[in-house]
Amino acid sequence: MEKVNVLNKYQVYIGSGLLGNIYSIIDTNGFSKIIVITDDKIPSNYLSEFEKISISSGEENKTIETVKEIWEQMLKLGCDRKTLVINLGGGVIGDIGGFAASCYMRGVKFLQIPTTLLSAVDASVGGKVGIDFSGIKNLIGSFNQPIGVIVDIETFNSLPDREFISGFGEIIKHGLIADPDYFKFVTSKKPREFSQDELIEIIKKSCEIKAAIISGDEKESGSRKLLNFGHTIGHALESASLQSQKPLLHGEAVAIGSIAEAKISFDLGLIEDKELSIIQQALEAAGLPVSFKVEDIDKIMELISKDKKSQSGKISWTLLNSIGSAVIDNQVEKNIVLSSLEYISD
């Protein structure tokens, strides 16, 4: 079992077969009740000894209405301020379960157990919890750290290829913004070709990169903005796709957003044409989408303008200045953003 310390507040535990040893990993003494928030896609035999609140899966259910349902169920189950909430599922469960826990009776403790590769390297680490609102991703939320994160890679075995590969959208992004050698390693094979031991090391390294970035900036006033690379455009595309027959997965949206924002980096003279090509080829080789059919460019621009990173109507962009290094707080002219959208449009 590998461990990663986050903010000197909790550990991320990474290994195989950890769900059966939860009591040896996390101290559950002192809690009056333990409940599990999960979704209808998670096998019922996971953590079957605990009472469960199950919600419908999917980003479209990450709403205040679902949070209300969770709170009503918590009340019926007799949850008090000493309750421990275990969020068992993908990023939607981690986000919405953490948000529900952070508000219930002014806050109860929660544990994250991500069951997707994407949530293991992204949503479960760092303490961002929240919901989508008025068609805008993660508009409502807070910073609230869990008591721990348990990543059991056995829960990934049943993931469809598309969902597993989606996790590499964030993994590759971590290499792009922080570590060129890591970028080379995680793009050296197709996602399903990595061994279990290699996968554990990949998850550990991604969590270490994220933990290092947020260590001095828990609430995103400075260096934590590095993690936003690929997300300004990625979130807009993801939100727009929710109305389509095949909504983008978060990692897919980040992959396309990374190409678009790498194009912006190139247009501003921060990276070379060769680097832009390497990034696009690496994401495509991983099996991630590299384009998106932009049917209403004005709608995408509107979604970008409403991004929660916007201040006084201006977006603070995180861009690349090389593969393995990023810079925050860039201002980008509208025509360059439009050019990047045309670049990734089908």
End-to-end distance, in Å? 43 Å
Stretches where pLDDT is under 50 for at least 5 consecutive residues are: none
Q: Specify the CATH architecture of the largest domain.
A: Up-down Bundle
How would you sum up the major sheet? 4 strands, parallel
Named CATH topology of the largest domain: Dehydroquinate synthase-like, alpha domain
> How much helix is in the residues?
40-55%
Q: Give the DSSP E fraction (strand runs of 2 or more residues).
A: 15-25%
Number of helices: 12
**Order of strands across the widest beta sheet?**
4-3-5-6
The mean pLDDT is 94
Radius of gyration: 19 Å
Q: What's the level 1 CATH class of the largest domain? A: Mainly Alpha
Name the CATH homologous superfamily of the largest domain: Dehydroquinate synthase-like - alpha domain
What is the structural class?
A: alpha/beta
Overall spatial form: globular
Order of helical and strand elements: EEHEEHEHEHEEEHHHHHHHEEEEH
List the helices and strands and how they pair.
Blueprint: E1 2-6, E2 10-15, H1 22-25, E3 33-39, E4 51-55, H2 64-76, E5 83-89, H3 91-103, E6 109-114, H4 117-121, E7 128-133, E8 136-143, E9 149-152, H5 161-178, H6 180-186, H7 196-214, H8 231-241, H9 250-267, H10 273-285, H11 297-305, E10 310-311, E11 314-315, E12 317-322, E13 325-330, H12 334-344
Parallel strand pairs: 2-9, 3-4, 3-5, 5-6
Antiparallel strand pairs: 1-2, 7-8, 10-11, 12-13
Helix pairs in contact: 2-3, 5-6, 5-7, 5-9, 8-9, 8-11, 9-10, 9-12
Polypeptide structure, described:
With 346 residues, this protein is an alpha/beta fold. It folds into 2 domains: 2-156, 3-Layer(aba) Sandwich (Rossmann fold); 161-344, Dehydroquinate synthase-like, alpha domain, CATH 1.20.1090.10. Helix content is 41%, strand content 20%. It is built from 12 helices and 13 strands. The chain has helices at residues 22-25, 64-76, 91-103, 117-121, 161-178, 180-186, 196-214, 231-241, 250-267, 273-285, 297-305, 334-344, and strands spanning 2-6, 10-15, 33-39, 51-55, 83-89, 109-114, 128-133, 136-143, 149-152, 310-311, 314-315, 317-322, 325-330. The strands form 5 sheets. Strands 4-3-5-6 form a 4-stranded parallel beta sheet. Strand 7 (128-133) and strand 8 form a beta hairpin. Helix 2 (64-76) packs across helix 3 (91-103) and helix 8 (231-241) crosses helix 11. It is globular. It starts with a strand and ends with a helix.
